[in-house]
Amino acid sequence: MPDSQPDRRTAIVLSNRTLQAKGIITSTARRVHAEKKGVRVFAVAESFGRGIGGGKKSVLAGVVMRRDLVIDGMAFGHATIGGDDATGAITSMYRSLGRDDVSCIMLDGLVISMYNIIDGEKISTDAGLPVVAITFEDSPKGLEDAIRHHFPDKKTQELKLTQYARLGRRERVVLKTGKPLYIRQWGLTARRALAVLNAFTLQGALPEPVKVAKIAARSAASTFP
C-alpha cells in the first residue's frame, strides 16, 4: 500500500494557504521559542511632555532584549498627540534596527498619545513578526464615549471609533508571578503569547523589556524643556 503521508502534508499546506487567504490565520503566525536563551523581543513604550514638539508629540522608545535580559538594541521615534502615526512610527523603528533575530514585538498598550491608536495587526504584517500588546486593567465599558468626547469632528470620530473597534477584545491571562495582564495578540496564540511574557517577567506584572522601554522613553522625554 503506497505511503499517503506526502499527500497529507500537501493537503495541510494547501489548507493553511486557504486559511491565510481568508484571513483566518496570518503568514506571520509562528512558534516563538520563548524557552531559548537567545530569543529576542522588541518592546515599545511611550512618554510625552509639554516640551516635545510643542506639546504635540510623544517619544517612543524601543528596546531589543534577549531572554537572558541582555539589551542589544534600541531605537527611538515620535508619535503625534491625537494623531494616526503611531503604527507607522513603530514599524519604522523596528526596521531602522536592521535586525533579523527578533522573534516578537511587545507593545505597552495600543491606545497611546491621546488616542493615537496602534494597529497591532498591521505592525505584525508589515514587520513579519508576531505582536503582543499588554495592558494592566480591563475596560468593560470601552473607550467609545471618551473618543467621542475628544474628537467632536464626526469624520475623525468615526475613524477613531473604527480603529478602536478593530483592536478586538482583550484576553485576561495570569503570569507566573500570579499577576494578571490583559493582552491582544497577532501572529501567535494567546498561550504562546503568555509563554513569551512569562519568559521576560521577573516580578510583578511588567515584563522587563517593557520596563526598560518605559524608562528610556521617560528619560528621552525629560531632555525636552
Describe this structure in words.
With 225 residues, this protein is an alpha+beta fold. Helices cover 36% and strands 24% of the residues. A seven-stranded mixed beta sheet has the order 3-2-1-4-7-9-8, with helices on both faces. Strand 1 and strand 2 form a beta hairpin. The N terminus is likely disordered.
Write the SSE topology:
Blueprint lengths: L4 H17 L18 E9 L8 E10 L4 E10 L5 H11 L7 E5 L2 E2 L3 E2 L2 H8 L3 E5 L8 H7 L3 H13 L4 E4 L5 E7 L3 H10 L8 H14 L4
Parallel strand pairs: 1-4, 4-7
Antiparallel strand pairs: 1-2, 2-3, 5-6, 7-9, 8-9
Helix pairs in contact: 2-3, 4-5
The radius of gyration computed from the alpha-carbon positions, rounded to a whole number of angstroms, is: 19 Å
SSE order, one letter for each helix or strand: HEEEHEEEHEHHEEHH
Number of strands: 9
Q: What's the helical proportion of residues?
A: 25-40%
Number of helices: 7
Adjacency order of strands in the biggest sheet: 3-2-1-4-7-9-8
Low-confidence stretches: 1-29
Terminal CA distance? 78 Å
Report the average pLDDT across residues. Answer: 86
Determine the structural class based on helices, strands and strand pairing: alpha+beta
Shape: globular
Strand coverage percent: 15-25%
The profile of the biggest β sheet is:
7 strands, mixed
